[in-house]
Amino acid sequence: MMNSLFRSAPPHPLVKGDTIGVCAPSSIFDKTLLMKGVKKMEDLGFNIYIPEAVYSRKRYMAGDDAVRTRVINELFADPSVKGIVCARGGFGAIRLLEYLDFDLISSNPKVFVGFSDITALLCAFSLKVPFHLFHGPVLTSMAVACDKTMNSLYEHLTWSPESVCSDIGVSQQNGECQEIGGCQEIGGCQEIGGCQEIGGCQEIGECQEIGESQMIGGCQKIGDCPEISVSCDPLSVVLRHGKVTGRLTGGNLATLCHLIGTPFQPDFRESILFLEDIGEQPYKIDRMLSHMKLASLFDGVRGVILGSFEKCGISGKKKEADRFNSCVNVSSSCYERPEDSDEYLIHEIFMEIFDSHDVPVMTGFPSGHGDVNCTMRFSAEVIMDTTTRSLRWPADTSYIKINRHG
Fold first, then answer.
1. Computed over its alpha carbons, how large is the radius of gyration of the chain?
2. Which family does it belong to (predicted)?
3. What DSSP string describes 258-309?
4. pLDDT, tens digit, for every residue of 337-373?
5. Crossing angle of the two packed helices 318-325 and 342-353, in degrees rounded to 10
6. How far apart are CA 252 and CA 36, in angstroms?
7. pTM for the full model?
8. Are 170 and 177 in contact (CB under 8 A)?
9. pLDDT of 37 over the 80 cut
10. Contact 29, 134 (CB under 8 A)
């Protein structure tokens, strides 16, 4: 097994016209919702390939283990498929881990997107394969996804910040969209097949070029290029302040907890740990976190970011957030939320669990089962800053070499 601390690289960014394959590692899904999600992806300019086996069923899962595993392996092996998105979460991904062909997957790095139960695959891949992964919406959740969710997904898949508007012929200007044709020019533009440029050139075609770019057999190298940054909700709470850099990992709390004691137990050393969940009462969250702490999973963690804990009792009342955010540290006596508040209980649990680790802890990151599900690039180096309440993905220096015409 690969050590989770090895340096991974991003797979080649997607471009308009690329084919994205669909897999269904977990629960059965509503076909109407799936096709609405497919339409959202097609509107972004991608071609969507749905293997017939995706529509299989066994009990509550989208087919038996062999069928679901085969679809994933075949999508990674197919050179015409440039990325893979999951149909739905639910349950079932954990059953596939012992059957996946990790050697094949490692040799065919591709964009892979999912969340919730798909955390099991993201965690296993982070241990076994040398490329970045994407914690982001599944197709059934895209059916009702807001623009912010879809914009974030496109930014990460194409590594082109704020590129959704520009790539479909509009640019964001002073909060309003303005038609632009093939090229947006601010400060001079060298156009190569249509590009967006803001003081440099971003080419969206065979490669993405910002600053000085060198193409080597389909490999993209980026010089000076923009970073992607996502800020927490304005009502977010900083439980402990700090600014740290680390490898982003994590996902659904319950799914991660179920991997303890398996060959795919997560390794959070030197990481910025992201956690989210849905429908779990505070005492269950306490139990899972206590289990993970006793298993030493939090040793070496550099920072903790909490996403949405939907239907877990978090209220997010502004007056309570304002009162808490006037505090500098979790140990401050001005943390005076009502003790019967579910939000207080959730935050208190995290404060207690991570009290001895002395790492920054921030809540309110817009990712998970909430109304907004921003995409996150896992296994990548990120900067967590509680002062700006943001998570930043600096510009990557190199991409895995892939033959785009193979």
1. 21
2. Belongs to the peptidase S66 family.
3. HTTTSTT----TTEEEEEEEES--HHHHHHHHHHHHHTTTTTT--EEEEEEE
4. 555 566 678 889 999 999 989 999 999 899 999 999 9
5. 30
6. 24
7. 0.78
8. yes
9. yes
10. no
Region label for 148, one of left (φ > 0), alpha (ψ between -120 and 50) or beta (otherwise): alpha
* Range in 34-48, 314-328, 329-343 the model is least confident about: 314-328
Residue pair 78/21 in contact (Cβ under 8 Å)? The answer is: yes
- For the stretch 268-295, pLDDT in tens is 999 999 999 999 999 999 999 999 999 9
The two beta strands, 19-23 and 81-86, are: parallel
Distance, in Å, from the CA atom of 308 to the CA atom of 370, rounded to the nearest integer, reads: 6
CA–CA dist 266, 300 (Å, integer): 12
- Average predicted confidence (pLDDT) for the chain: 79
Structure tokens at 202: 């971003």
Lowest mean pLDDT among 43-47, 217-221, 268-272, 345-349: 217-221
**Alpha carbon distance 382, 293 (integer Å):** 23
Which candidate, 308, 311, 300, 390, places its Cα nearest to that of 354? 300
Place of tokens 């440099």: 200
What are the structural domains, with CATH classification, of the chain? 19-156 (3.40.50.10740), 163-226 (no CATH), 230-393 (3.50.30.60)
Residue 216 near residue 12 (C-beta atoms within 8 A): no
**Amino acid at residue number 37:** G
